[in-house]
DNA sequence: ATTAGGG
DNA sequence: CCCTAAT
C-alpha cells in the first residue's frame, strides 16, 4: 500500500545495484575553515592555566566560610501553577538556571506578524545557549569552569576579611551556591557590631557582589521583582507552527535556534545556507568539548560542584569533571531534566533565613516578590533585619502529566538549587523600587525608619544585570535587541553569539561596565552604573594579568555562565507530522542516507540534524516493535509505525543484499585473481 | 562531513 | 540526545 507506493523509488535501486549515496564530491560542501582556532585555543589554555592556579590559591578561603548556620530551608511551600496546555504549548524558560540564569528567560511570544512567519520562541538550549557559550566562550561547564572559578577564588582570597564578616546564608542556600559564590551574599550582624546594612555596603565596596554576579552573571531578565509582569514565557507555540511542504514533505518549521524567520527558505544548500553564526557556533561548541580542554587544570571538588550547579550537570565521562564529588551533585545531574516537556510550572520557594527572630511580616504587598522582612532600629542606631524568606526568581519547569508529586517536588528543588547554584545576588527593594546604589546608607535610602520597614524587600536575582524592570516590561523588543540580559534560551534572538557579543558589548559597557568590573571582580553592575567604583574597591582585587584579556574581553567574564549552557540540547520530541515526514523520506531514500533524508524532509528544520533523524528512526523502529502499552510520549499513529516497520524491513533487506553482493563480488574477484592469476580475463560478476 | 552504533 | 569510531 502506501509503503509499496512509496517504495517504488527504493525498488528502483533494487534493480540496479543500490547506490546508497551520491558521490562524496557531489555532497561536499566545504566550509572555509577559519584559522583562528589556534589563537583561541591558546588563549583558552592560558586562561585555564591561570584558572588552575587561582583555584588552588583561593579554594581554601572560598570553602571555609561556610558555617554553622542553623538555618533551615523550607521548600515546602512552593506554589506550583500549572499552565493550560492547549494547542499552544507553554514555552518554557530555561532561563533561570543554567545558562539560563545567564539568559533568563525572556521569551517574547512574538508570534509573528506575518502569517507565513511563525515566530516561536522557546528556550532553546542548543541555539542560544550554545551559541552563547560561543560568545563567551569558554567557560562554563565542566571544562570551561576554570574561567569562572578563578575569579571567585581570587575574589575570596582578596576580600577574605570581608567575607568573614558576612552573614551566614541558610545552609542550603550556601551549599547550593557552593562555596564562594553566594556565601557572602548578605550579612546579618549578629549583634551590635555593624548593622546589616553596613555589612551590605561593605560587601559592595569589597565587591562582594561581584563574585556572585561574576559567577552567576545571568542577565536578570527574569526579575525576581514580581511586580514586573514578565512578558516572557508562555509564548505560544502553535502545534502547527511548522508546516509541511507540498508533496516532498519538507518540514518548514522554524527552529528555535533561529532568531530570524526562515520560512520558505529558498536556498537549498544546507551548508551554503547555514548562517555564519551557526558555523561559528558549531566551531565553538566543538572547541568547548574538544581536547583542548583537557589541558585545563583539574578543578577542585568544591569548585566543580559549584559550577556545576549553575552549569549543566556534567557527565561523568567528562574527564575534567572526574573529581566532581559534591554531595548534591546528584541533584545537579538531574537538572537537565528540568526541561522536559509537559506543563509549565512556576514555583515559589522560600528559604528561612534563620536570622534574628523577630516578628515576621509579609512583604509589602502580595505581589511583591521580595521577602518578608522586619526591621527595627535599635537604640544604637543599628538596624536589624529579619528576613523571613526569599522569593526565588521565577522558575519554569516541565514535568509530564504522569509525573508524580514526588518527582515534581524534586524538580522544583532541583530548579531552585540550580538557580542558587547558578549564582544569585540580592536585590533590595524599597517602596517597590530597586535600590541600586549600594553605597547609599540606610539612612539616605530611608531604610532606617521603622515606618519604612514594610516597604522594604529583598530579592534573589539570578542575574547580574539590574536593568530597570521597566525595560523588560515596557520595551521588550528594544530590550532584547540591545540587551543580552534578556536573551534567553527561549528568546528569539538567535543570531550568532559572536554577533551578540559585538552588539552587546556597548551595552554592557554602558550599563555596568561589566567587562571591566567583571574582570576585576570588583563592582557590581549597580555600582558601576552609578560610578561607585571606588579606588579602594579596585585595590582589593588586583587585576588579573592582562594576558587573558583577549579572552576575557567579553566572553569569559560576563557571560560566563553561558558556557554552562553548553549543555544538552533541549529535548524536542518529534511531532507526528515530523514522524510522518521522516517515514516518508526514509521510505524513499532508505536508511543510511540520513543526510539526504534531512535534505529531503527536514531541510528547514535546523534543529533536526541528520543524526537526530537517524536516532529518531532508530527509536521509531523500536517503538513500532513494542506493544502500544510500552510506548511513551505522544502516540504515533499505528499506521505510521507500520510504515516504519515496512520500510525498515525493506531497507534492511536491501542492505543485506548489497552487502551480499559486495561480498560475492569480492570473493569472485579474489577467486579470479588467485585462481587465474592476474592479468587474466576478469570475470564480471553477474549480479542480480 | 557522514554514518553507524552504543550509551 | 550525546559521543565516538570509522569512513
From TrEMBL:
A GO cellular component annotation in the UniProt record: nucleus
Gene3D superfamilies: 1.10.246.220
Residue ranges of the region described as Disordered: 356-375
Major localization listed first in the record, in broad terms: nucleus
Molecular function terms from GO: telomeric DNA binding
HTH myb-type domain: residues covered: 567-625
Keyword Nucleus belongs to the record: yes
InterPro entries: Homeodomain-like_sf, Myb_dom, SANT/Myb, TPR1-6-like_ubiquitin, TRP_plant, Ubiquitin-like_domsf
Keywords of the record: DNA-binding, Nucleus
Subcellular location(s) of the protein: Nucleus
Name under which the protein is recorded: Telomere repeat-binding protein 3-like
Organism: Senna tora
Native organism taxonomy: Eukaryota, Viridiplantae, Streptophyta, Embryophyta, Tracheophyta
Amino acid at each position: 500500500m502506501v509503503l509499496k507506493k512509496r517504495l517504488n523509488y527504493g525498488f528502483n535501486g533494487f534493480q540496479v545495484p543500490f547506490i546508497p549515496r551520491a558521490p562524496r564530491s557531489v555532497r561536499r560542501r566545504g566550509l572555509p575553515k577559519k584559522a583562528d582556532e589556534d589563537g583561541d585555543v591558546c588563549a583558552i589554555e592560558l586562561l585555564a592555566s591561570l584558572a588552575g592556579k587561582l583555584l588552588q590559591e583561593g579554594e581554601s578561603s572560598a570553602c571555609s566560610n561556610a558555617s554553622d548556620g542553623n538555618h533551615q530551608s523550607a521548600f515546602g511551600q512552593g506554589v506550583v501553577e500549572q499552565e493550560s496546555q492547549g494547542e499552544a504549548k507553554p514555552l518554557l524558560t530555561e532561563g533561570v538556571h543554567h545558562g539560563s540564569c545567564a539568559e533568563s528567560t525572556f521569551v517574547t511570544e512574538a508570534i509573528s506578524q506575518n502569517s507565513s512567519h511563525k515566530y516561536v520562541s522557546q528556550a532553546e538550549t542548543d541555539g542560544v545557549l550554545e551559541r552563547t557559550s560561543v560568545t563567551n566562550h569558554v567557560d562554563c561547564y565542566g571544562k570551561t569552569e576554570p574561567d569562572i572559578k578563578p575569579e571567585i577564588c581570587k575574589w575570596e582570597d582578596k576580600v577574605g576579611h570581608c567575607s568573614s564578616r558576612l552573614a551566614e546564608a541558610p545552609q542550603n542556600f550556601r551549599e547550593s551556591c557552593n562555596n564562594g559564590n553566594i556565601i557572602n551574599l548578605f550579612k546579618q550582624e549578629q549583634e551590635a557590631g555593624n548593622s546589616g546594612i553596613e555589612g551590605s555596603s561593605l560587601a559592595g565596596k569589597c565587591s562582594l557582589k561581584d563574585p556572585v554576579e561574576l559567577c552567576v552573571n545571568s542577565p536578570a531578565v527574569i526579575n525576581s521583582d514580581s511586580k514586573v509582569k514578565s512578558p516572557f514565557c508562555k509564548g505560544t507555540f502553535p502545534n502547527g507552527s511548522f508546516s509541511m511542504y507540498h508533496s516532498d514533505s519538507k518540514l518548514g518549521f522554524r527552529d528555535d535556534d533561529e532568531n530570524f524567520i526562515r520560512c520558505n527558505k529558498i536556498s537549498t544548500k544546507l551548508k551554503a545556507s547555514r548562517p555564519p553564526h551557526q558555523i561559528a557556533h558549531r566551531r565553538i561548541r566543538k572547541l568547548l568539548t574538544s581536547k583542548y580542554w583537557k589541558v585545563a587544570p583539574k578543578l577542585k571538588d568544591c569548585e566543580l560542584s559549584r559550577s556545576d550547579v549553575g552549569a549543566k550537570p556534567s557527565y561523568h565521562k567528562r574527564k575534567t569533571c572526574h573529581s566532581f564529588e559534591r554531595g548534591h551533585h546528584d541533584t545537579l545531574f538531574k537538572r537537565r531534566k528540568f526541561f522536559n516537556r509537559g506543563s509549565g510550572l512556576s514555583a515559589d520557594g522560600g528559604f528561612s533565613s534563620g536570622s534574628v527572630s523577630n516578628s515576621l511580616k509579609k512583604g509589602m504587598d502580595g505581589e511583591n516578590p521580595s521577602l518578608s522582612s522586619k526591621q527595627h532600629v535599635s537604640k544604637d542606631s543599628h538596624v536589624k533585619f529579619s528576613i523571613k524568606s526569599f522569593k526565588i526568581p521565577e522558575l519554569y519547569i516541565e514535568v509530564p502529566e504522569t509525573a508524580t508529586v514526588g518527582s515534581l517536588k524534586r524538580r522544583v528543588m532541583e530548579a531552585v538549587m540550580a538557580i542558587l547554584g547558578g549564582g544569585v545576588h540580592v536585590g533590595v527593594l524599597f517602596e517597590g523600587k530597586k535600590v541600586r546604589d549600594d553605597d547609599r546608607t540606610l539612612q539616605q535610602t530611608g531604610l532606617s525608619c521603622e515606618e519604612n520597614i514594610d516597604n522594604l524587600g529583598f530579592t534573589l536575582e539570578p542575574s547580574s544585570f539590574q536593568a530597570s524592570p521597566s525595560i523588560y516590561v515596557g520595551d521588550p523588543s528594544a530590550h532584547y535587541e540591545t540587551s543580552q540580559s534578556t536573551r534567553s534560551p527561549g528568546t528569539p534572538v538567535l543570531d550568532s553569539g559572536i554577533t551578540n557579543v559585538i552588539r552587546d558589548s556597548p551595552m554592557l559597557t554602558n550599563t555596568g561596565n561589566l567587562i571591566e568590573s567583571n574582570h576585576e571582580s570588583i563592582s557590581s553592575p549597580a555600582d558601576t552604573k552609578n560610578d561607585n567604583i571606588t579606588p579602594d574597591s579596585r585595590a582589593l582585587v588586583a587585576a588579573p594579568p592582562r594576558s587573558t584579556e583577549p579572552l576575557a574581553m567579553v566572553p569569559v567574564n560576563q557571560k560566563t555562565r553561558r558556557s554552562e549552557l553548553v549543555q544538552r540540547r533541549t529535548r524536542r520530541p518529534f511531532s507526528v507530522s515530523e514522524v510522518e515526514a521522516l517515514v516518508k523520506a526514509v521510505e524513499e531514500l532508505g536508511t543510511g542516507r540520513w543526510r539526504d533524508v534531512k535534505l529531503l524532509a527536514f531541510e528547514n528544520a535546523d534543529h533536526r540534524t541528520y543524526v537526530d533523524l537517524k536516532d529518531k528512526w532508530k527509536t521509531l523502529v523500536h517503538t513500532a516493535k513494542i506493544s502500544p502499552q510500552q510506548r511513551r510520549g505522544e502516540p504515533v499513529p499505528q499506521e505510521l509505525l507500520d510504515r516504519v516497520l515496512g520500510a525498515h524491513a525493506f531497507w534492511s533487506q536491501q542492505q543485506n543484499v548489497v552487502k551480499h553482493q559486495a561480498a560475492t563480488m569480492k570473493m569472485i574477484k579474489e577467486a579470479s585473481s588467485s585462481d587465474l592469476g592476474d592479468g587474466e580475463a576478469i570475470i564480471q560478476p553477474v549480479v542480480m
